[in-house]
Amino acid sequence: SNKNVDISKDFWNKIVEVIEGSEACLTVTTYLHHYWLSRYEYVTVKELYKDIKRKVGKNQAKPLLNDLVKDAKTYREIQETSFRKWSKNERQIKESLDALNLFRVKQPLPMVLALMHAYEAGQLKLGQVQDMLRTIEDFHFLFTAITSQRSSGGISFMYALHARNLLNATDTNTRGRVLNELKRKLKDKLPPYEEFVANFSLLSFTDEFTKQKRLIQYVLSKIDRKHSGGVAVDYDQMTIEHITPQSDSSVSREVIGNVGNLLLCESNFNSNQLAAKSFPEKKKLLAKSGIKLDPPLKDSTKWKEAEIASRAAWMAKVAFTKVWKM
């Protein structure tokens, strides 16, 4: 008489094992909430379990548990990308997911879960998933990571609505329309260019202020990839070089740490050759090393606060109009 109960417990334990075993600090309740939002009407976490009890009858319980077990693995892979072995063709998906995790955004998770569910079910092509995830990545870089815009809940509701529409779609054309509609809505919510530039120019990293280090590494690698024409580079093996060195006491820490003063270099080259050399010496060494200098660096003959601010503004423009353009 307890057979069904035991089976249910086994399924539930599998879910708990996958979710709570993650290094990404996931919880079963949050997973259930995001899963539920991707399939049913919007509900708060507080009302989640009541809503499940109301809508899941005896006949739906087993299929629900089956889906929850399958999607638990996908949910973990989304937020702990090392949990999955990605194919070479899926590299762009992994990069976008890593970026969203870097930004620490949770709002798009129901939509991302729906995307990956549809992809694994063969309902979406690889290119569609890559394109949609890149759009979500670009949006949250501009909206969240840089300008720290606040949402009253409308964005969470929007993602949940489109996740449901995607999973409820019965044909390829309808799924395509759902994705295109979400892209248009995200584009309409972008922050103004001037606000983005002002906030981008405040990005900073020094040995004392490391809070934005990973974000800056992400920014520098993306801009460099765009500037260098997509040449394959292992950015994980590179470190952040301060063009005006941190040892220069004649310049404020704010200027030294500013994103306009930062450059990615191969770690050994950075520490062993650049050290605290003058700007003209650094330019020569950088040119010899094969690092492609961006126009502000290439065209400058001196490197002071004005040049650093000018490069930061150039980087912001390139970021908004080319690298993270929507």
Which keywords apply here?
single chain, 326 residues, mainly alpha, two-stranded antiparallel ribbon
Class by alpha and beta content: mainly alpha
The CA-CA distance between the termini, in Å, is: 57 Å
Number of helices: 16
Portion in helices: 55-70%
The averaged pLDDT comes out at 92
| Low confidence ranges | none
Main beta sheet, described? 2 strands, antiparallel
Give the total of beta strands. 2
**Overall shape:** elongated
In N-to-C order, the SSE pattern is: HHHHHHHHHHHEHEHHHH
Radius of gyration: 23 Å
> Order of strands in the sheet with the most strands?
1-2
Looking at how many chains there are and whether they match, the oligomeric state comes to: single chain
Instruction: Tell me the β content.
Output: under 5%
Task: Give your account of this protein's structure.
With 326 residues, the protein is mainly alpha-helical. Helices cover 63% and strands 3% of the residues. The protein is built from 16 helices and two strands. The chain has helices spanning 3-20, 28-37, 48-55, 58-79, 91-103, 109-120, 126-146, 154-168, 172-188, 193-200, 213-227, 253-257, 267-274, 279-289, 295-299, 305-323; strands spanning 238-242, 262-266. Strands 1-2 form a two-stranded antiparallel sheet. α4 (58-79) crosses α6 (109-120), α5 packs parallel to α7 and α7 runs parallel beside α9 (172-188). The longest helix is centred in the first third of the chain and has 22 residues, at 58-79. The termini are far apart. The mean pLDDT is 92.
